[in-house]
Amino acid sequence: MKEFSKIDSLEKDEYYxxxxxxxxxxxKYHLKRGYCCNNNCKHCPYKKEIESKNEKS
Length: 57
What we know:
Structural class: alpha+beta
Shape: elongated
Strand order of the largest sheet: 1-2
Strand content: 5-15%
Largest sheet: 2 strands, antiparallel
Distance between the termini: 53 Å
Number of domains: 1
């Protein structure tokens, strides 16, 4: 019996594996999710919004 993981439900263009074996989410994945998790993701499209809000404060 194969164990189902969340990564199996993602499209191939929503992530890739780094040389070190980490799963890296693409901008498409982040936009589909719809919010920033504040983990400083490499391809986060929301990062710029957060930085500009912090500069205004």
